[in-house]
Amino acid sequence: xxxxxxxxAKIIEKRALAPxxxxxxxxxPRVARHAQPGQFxxxxxxxxxERVPFTIADADPSAGTITLVIxxxxxxxxxxxxxxxxxxxxxxxxPLGAPSEVETFGTVVLLGGGFGIAAIxxxxxxxxxxxxRIISIIGARTRDLLIMENEMRAAxxxxxxxxxxxxxxxxxxxxxxxxxxxxxxxxxxxxAVGPIPMMRAVAEVTRPHGIKTIxxxxxxxxxxxxxxxxxxxxxGGETKFACVDGPEFDAHIVNFDELVSRNRMYxxxxxxxRTDCKINRLTAAG
Length: 286
What we know:
Elements: E1 5-18, E2 21-27, H1 29-34, E3 40-44, E4 52-55, E5 58-60, E6 65-71, H2 75-81, E7 88-96, E8 107-113, H3 116-129, E9 133-140, H4 149-155, E10 158-163, E11 170-171, H5 174-184, E12 189-193, H6 196-206, E13 213-216, E14 232-235, E15 238-241, E16 248-250, H7 256-264, H8 267-273
Parallel strand pairs: 8-9, 8-12, 9-10, 10-11, 12-13
Antiparallel strand pairs: 1-2, 1-7, 2-6, 3-4, 3-7, 5-6, 13-16, 14-15
């Protein structure tokens, strides 16, 4: 029997993380029992509404809750942003996607860019619990857009914060911080979640060093079960579906050119409909 389940999800707690960015704790006991790092859910606000995927930022099986981070971009996420504790989403499907690989690798560097910080939180804690030394690098354009700093600090052995304008942490990019870490000590695995250009840049930093690097891809996604084909990506010369084969893949064999091209195909469509169908997906990312 499939572990996926569809539930009416009541909002237990809601708090603001940044402008137009909210953390929601939802009552979803069956999803919480089975959720693993790297997996996601698809939610609808109302009957016939848009289906929007979000990475599970946290899960508490004992409390029967999961945590999502929502950024207001299109009509659907704006509708969620207007909801309050006690309100319910029409339905929530999950957990979906292949779980992250959690083993004892050694020193693991996890990078979260912008909204992608939420997507690495659950994995960061799991990898640390597995006995790895965890160095987390999180970045945003400015302090106001930086999310989950305290949560990531608690889950990591070392946390490096960067902002483009230097208003919090170091001034610069997460890739610059990664280069310094690699130069000072052995790194056995890197995981990056964030905007496509950021993940691509991380792959190029680690490639010369032969460090296994994992990225969570965010192509167009509709049904989350592999039926629609909208989330096709080329990995190692083969066609994969991010929703069932991923969302995590080896960054060094991802065809980023093809991924960027596919995402751009829907830009005008999404702009006209004020939709969240691409912008707020797995890593909702950037």
